[in-house]
Design a protein that fits this description.
single chain; Rossmann fold; eight-stranded mixed sheet; 9 helices; globular
């Protein structure tokens, strides 16, 4: 294993735009949920006329699903809040004539009522259920994979010390909010998954990339907790944390009340 300063310098220098996690190969591993979200999305694209992906990152998941689908909705749009990611997403979706709106995660969706057959999102920071319901056409579907309660909490506590686990990401809260917006939850599945880090550079890159695990994280500000984690990995092997994910699918009823 490289020395701490070398690893930390590497962890501070790796680009973190987009949702391409290929850099982590050999440095960290994360189990994937059993339902295969991207493949589910590809299947939907084969029969969908209009689709919106919310908080798309660099558009990587949508592009993968479109490539597997072998076709694209006639109307394809996405939103993204971080300008570097929005630029990546525009390039990723351009071959499919997709457009990307650069808006804040909690901003109203800049689309008309009843516009999309499908609204999707992978790991949204926030979900504005009223806006999702508004832009969906009657009979349309919201299909998403959300981050659940306590994701990587072991890593949060390694950086911050004992920290309460918030319940805002509980599937029950999402279900209640979706129903309050007039949507019907038709599928809900949960999974707890193993996350391993083999060196402290991988931890640093992960925390720079997945910014809600330790809000305000910087390598310099957390140098000493990172050093302690480095020594722990040297002594005990990979640092193990756990993530939680849930798949949620909702439908917007037709105006006569049917699905």
């Amino acid at each position: 294993m490289a020395d701490f300063d070398t690893l930390l310098a590497e962890g501070a220098s790796v680009p973190v735009e987009g949702w391409d996690f290929s850099w982590f190969a050999g440095r960290a591993t994360e189990q994937r949920p059993p339902w295969g979200y991207a493949q589910l999305l590809a299947h939907r694209y084969r029969t969908t006329g209009s689709a919106l992906d919310v908080q798309t990152g660099g558009g990587e998941v949508v592009r993968w699903a479109l490539d597997r689908a072998g076709t694209a909705p006639g109307l394809l749009a996405a939103t993204e809040s971080w300008a570097p990611n929005a630029a990546l997403a525009r390039r990723a979706l351009a071959p499919y004539r997709g457009t990307v709106a650069h808006i804040a995660d909690d901003a109203p969706l800049p689309f008309g009522d009843d516009t999309f057959d499908l609204v999707s999102s992978r790991h949204p920071v926030v979900t504005n259920w009223a806006q999702v319901a508004r832009v969906l056409r009657p009979g349309g579907t919201y299909l998403a994979q959300h981050v659940g309660v306590g994701t990587a909490h072991e890593l949060t506590e390694a950086m911050l010390g004992p920290t309460p686990v918030g319940q805002g990401r509980h599937p029950a809260a999402a279900t209640a909010a979706a129903q309050a917006a007039g949507l019907r939850v038709t599928d809900l599945r949960e999974a707890t998954l193993r996350l391993e880090f083999f060196d402290v550079a991988a931890v640093a890159v992960f925390l720079r990339k997945v910014i809600w695990i330790v809000p305000g994280f910087t390598v310099e500000a957390y140098r000493e907790p990172l050093r302690a984690l480095h020594e722990r990995i040297r002594a005990d092997g990979p640092f193990v944390a756990h993530t939680t994910r849930y798949l949620i699918e909702c439908s917007k009823p037709h105006r006569n009340g049917s699905r």
